[in-house]
Amino acid sequence: MPIIIIVSTVNPYYKNAEGRDAAITPLFGGSTLAIDAKLFQFWVHLKRNQVKSVLDQSSRNELINRINMLDENSKAQWGQMNIFQMLKHCVLCEEHYLGKTSHKRAFMGRLFGKAGLKNILREDKSFPKSAPTSTAFKVKEEIGDVESEKRRWIALIEEYGNYSHDFEHWFFGKMTKEQVGQFVYKHNDHHLRQFNV
Hints:
The chain is of the alpha+beta class. It is built from six helices and six strands; from the N terminus they run E-E-E-E-H-H-H-H-H-E-E-H. The strands form two sheets. Strands 3-2-1-4 form a four-stranded antiparallel β-sheet. A two-stranded antiparallel ribbon has the order 5-6. It is globular, with a radius of gyration of 20 Å.
């Protein structure tokens, strides 16, 4: 049975063969149109696989909500960092991405950085578990104030609402504003999934 899809800016929905409604986002402003099932499936695939960006308010809100779910009892699903170390690591990284700190570019990054960035920013690609990082972002202290680090991380994430400067990553090199937004979202998502939120 074919799926009949009706898209409207007033009341967007589609009806399946059983006549049930399900909400969808309008594809085109102001118009109502019928679309076949294959086109709808393609649109759903695009929406699901869209790379999120920390430059978008909705993505920042999502990250902040997930950070707020962390507490001193949160345990890593992989890797060696405890909750405090992960939070401090992310704060140090955000300070770098926001241009508050700078770090010398790694030699290996000069050779492989651009290709590595392109690979990471692919829509279906997530950060590999236990990926290497610079010693500048490794946290040796094992004990600290978890709530304070959460507040610092959240405050830094909120600063992306006004992000406008050029950036050079310690490994990947020069990055556009759009690349920074996508990369930072993926990095944060990686560590939040590491701690199961």
